[in-house]
Input
Amino acid sequence: MVYFPCGQSLASYLVPNEDGRDVETILVGREGAVGGIVSEGYLPAYTRIAVKFGGSFARLPVGRLEAAKTTSRALRSVFSRYADCLLAQIFQSTACNAIHSIEQRTAKWIVSAIERTDGEEIVPLTHEQLATLLGVGRSYASRVIQTFKAEGILQTRRGSILVRDREALEARACLCNESVKNHFEEVLRGVYPTEEAAGS
Output
């Protein structure tokens, strides 16, 4: 099956590690799809896919998608370009983990989650989920959130984070999310969610 997140639904790719922990590499929201989108569903999966925010997903059997690609060069091109965009996110995530601070990465992940859902300021993200995105312990993620709360940028609710000052949050984030958005726009114009698209 191929799954297409709709609305606020958000999925992530998890890479298991030898210590039993999973590390999240990229998020996929309404701009993309998860499942057998490149390998036609026949190759073994290297990652696990987890639903980060529940909601609606459109699903399509891999066979039907592949049949449609066979008859449509344009559709084949779209999925090839989307695969390129996924790879760009993985490359950017690797670079981000190597050079940016936990604070920058925390802000980036929260902004990224907002943009890939319905653009709401409430992100249903727990401290544990955020720690998995960052590849750190829960207590470390909680300390970063406390810092942002003290600065009036975030507020926490049970099982979610409320963004009180999005401009300040974006200023604290690294530019990795912007780089990914720019690549989407260059390779697959009009697919990555924008505020204009959300309001239309």
Q: What stands out?
A: Residues 73-99 form the longest helix (27 residues). The beta strands are 2-5, 10-16, 22-28, 34-35, 48-53, 57-60, 122-123, 154-157, 160-163.
